[in-house]
Amino acid sequence: RYHLPKMLLLWRNVFPRSLKELEAEKARGDSFTWQVTLEGRAGALCAMRSFVAHCPELLTEDVIRKLMTPIECAMTMMSHIPSVIKTHGAHLKASAAMVRLRLYDILALLPPKTYEGSFNPLLRELVAEFTLTDNSANTTTSLLRSLCHYDDSVLLGSWLQETDHKSIEDQLQPNSASGSGALEHDPSSIYLRIPAGEA
After folding, report:
1. What is the pLDDT of residues 139-197, one digit of tens each?
2. If 153 and its partner were Cys, which of 76, 122, 160, 181 is the partner (CB 3.0–4.6 Å)?
């Protein structure tokens, strides 16, 4: 509780606050700067997701409203990522996919009424995500595996079967090429993905 105001301030300052700031950022950044920026923003969204998941007693209306500022900035930034990837290279796809995945993770935990004003841009992003219409950044961030019933493992392959090393297989398999959720690209998967019984 004591550190919450500082955390909210840090999370808010990780993202550009206006479209003008975002445009200036796009104009001056190079490839390495964008990689570091995207990884930092994915980390901030992951920290916000952990906060929402593990500190529900601190989620007052005011705190949720303050959380929505960086989340809305992240949504705005995501609509500009394809041009950044086109300008600075396809190697940024994995980092952009992590930002998208973390954004979807936190939105899934928040009540939809808190971001109903952002449904239009979110819907555009989701349509582009599912249809892979943006050829310059068509790295997927599939959450299908986590939503499927155990009996549906026939569709997804034998790696979904219950084994003593299932959590490791789960982290190595999904979206490995893009980095989304893969153990080698996502340090947070160590604590976010392992079910309590398998730790």
Report:
1. 444 555 565 655 555 555 554 455 555 555 555 554 444 544 566 667 777 777 655 55
2. 160
Longest dimension (CA), the chain: 51
| Of residues 33, 141, 17, 21, the one with CA closest to residue 87 | 33
Instruction: Give Cα 136 to chain centroid, integer Å.
Output: 19
Cα–Cα distance list, 162 to 61, 84, 151, 165, 199 (Å):
40, 41, 11, 8, 15
Alpha helices for 55-147 (secondary structure H): 61-88, 93-109, 119-131, 144-147
Say what the pTM is: 0.73
Distances (CA, A) of 72 to 13, 119, 182: 13, 11, 26
Pull the structure tokens for residue 135: 């050829």
Report pLDDT digits (tens) over 83-96: 899 999 888 988 88
* pLDDT for position 137: 43
